[in-house]
Amino acid sequence: MPPVELILLLLSPLFLLCVVLEWRYAVLKKLSWYQWRDTVANASLALLHQGSDMLAVLLLMPFFYWLHQYRVFTIELTALNLLLAFILQDFLYYWFHRGSHHIRWLWASHVAHHSSRLMNFSTAFRQSLTYPLSGMWLFWLPMILLGYDPKLVFAVVALNLAFQFFVHTQAIGRLGLLEQVFNTPSHHRVHHACNAIYIDRNFAGVLIIWDKLFGTFVSEQADEPCRYGITDDFNSTNPLTITFYEWRRMWQELRCKERSQPAWKVLLKMPGKLPAKEYR
Ligand SMILES: [Zn+2]
Ligand SMILES: [Zn+2]
């Protein structure tokens, strides 16, 4: 089993425990954080995503090792090099994630993660099986070329994703000084919100410093509660509808006889954003 799936599988009992505890808390406090159809959709999407990701990594591993022979350095497994691997991968994740909100080909996969109007731990499971098609793996190639072993790179990717599970919750408020350096539930609630002031902000995986450095950081405002979801009127709990929503729209635009844009623009350019007053 590839390292990504193994690490996430080993952590899955902890993930499930968090979901159950958060759900019980929401029931006791009469908070509408969970809807069973939404949670079932999230769980189904997680299984589909894990399956396609495992297949993609297995198929691509020979290519990654072929590329690895052209590495610039041979990087030894020291504590410092491991730490640098985490920081570098998190930096690359920031650009992958930022690109996923601005390049339609990437957004077609990423929209699944944003398409729920709820925010809870199970939202972290809401992923698309089409990430390998969009080319998420391309973003890790610089690390392989630099000299990190491909298996190590994918283990680091998995740990980054595992960390991100814990930022999908409304149950945790602000975390003091940690807010300055790390991506936290508060920062990630902003990322999932479709309020005009929050949209396309806080792309961090683990370290929020990237958003602060590159001008995409916004903190959660007490007078602006987050409204979760995308700006379209999309509200499905069917895993296939969720997965292929944007791909279908792209395909329909490509096939439209009165199309005004060239095909490459349909595939790469994001559809126009709504004026602020029209955001849900
Ligand atoms: Zn996102
Ligand atoms: Zn998220």
Record the SSE blueprint.
Elements: H1 3-28, H2 36-68, H3 79-100, H4 104-114, H5 131-134, H6 141-146, H7 150-165, H8 178-181, H9 185-192, H10 209-213, H11 239-255, H12 263-268
Can you put this structure into words, describing what you see?
By secondary structure, the chain is mainly alpha-helical. The chain has one domain (3-278). Helix content is 56%, strand content 0%. The protein has helices at residues 3-28, 36-68, 79-100, 104-114, 131-134, 141-146, 150-165, 178-181, 185-192, 209-213, 239-255, 263-268. The longest helix is centred in the N-terminal third of the chain and has 33 residues, at 36-68. It is globular, with a radius of gyration of 19 Å. The site of one zinc ion has 7 residues, from helix 3 and helix 4.
